[in-house]
Amino acid sequence: MDYEATIVALSKRIDALETQLKRLEQAHIHTRANTKVSDVMLKACYDAGIAAAFEGNSDFNAYTEQVCFKTRMNPGTARILIMTAYALKQGELFKCIISGKAAEFFLEQLQKDFGAEGLQRGLSALELHIQYRRSLKRDTTLLEKIANQFKENIN
């Protein structure tokens, strides 16, 4: 057996893996656990969800990668928020848990970007979500309060 050739090959492979690891670290793929979702993160997720809606693309993997690269968000959190923004834009049911902060942020953005019609679609989606959460016997008090506040904005 040619040990020297094997050692050289393994050494090259180690170098390639170290280079790949450095690229991943530079790309900020590694996220910190329990990082609070900031307004910058919410905006990035909202923008990605709206882009997906305009492109008619419900494959959220590429959008999730882009948001994580930009914000260092947890990929699971980013995906949930992107899917939620998408559903709100489309006026569709979403089943992922959403914080009051995210709900308010997304509805404000929809109203700002798409006017009363966009806000109405977002509220329709939020109402569907509230009904879904009620069917699971989950608390919907905060989301109902937010929906009612935004309904007043339409009237």
Brief rundown of the structure:
The protein has 155 residues and is mainly alpha-helical. It has helices spanning 3-26, 39-55, 61-71, 75-90, 100-135, 141-154.
Please provide a written account of the structure.
- The structure is a single chain.
- By secondary structure, this protein is an all-alpha fold.
- The protein has two domains: 1-30; 37-154.
- Helices cover 76% and strands 0% of the residues.
- The mean pLDDT is 88.
Can you write the helix and strand succession as a string?
A: HHHHHH
Biggest sheet, in brief? none
Strand content: under 5%
The span between the termini is: 82 Å
Number of β-strand runs = 0
Categorize the overall geometry.
Answer: elongated
Instruction: State the secondary-structure class.
Output: mainly alpha
Helix content: over 70%
Tally the structural domains.
2
Number of helices: 6
Write the topology of this structure.
Elements: H1 3-26, H2 39-55, H3 61-71, H4 75-90, H5 100-135, H6 141-154
Helix pairs in contact: 2-3, 2-4, 2-5, 3-4, 4-5, 5-6
List keywords for this structure.
155 residues, elongated, 6 helices, 2 domains, mainly alpha
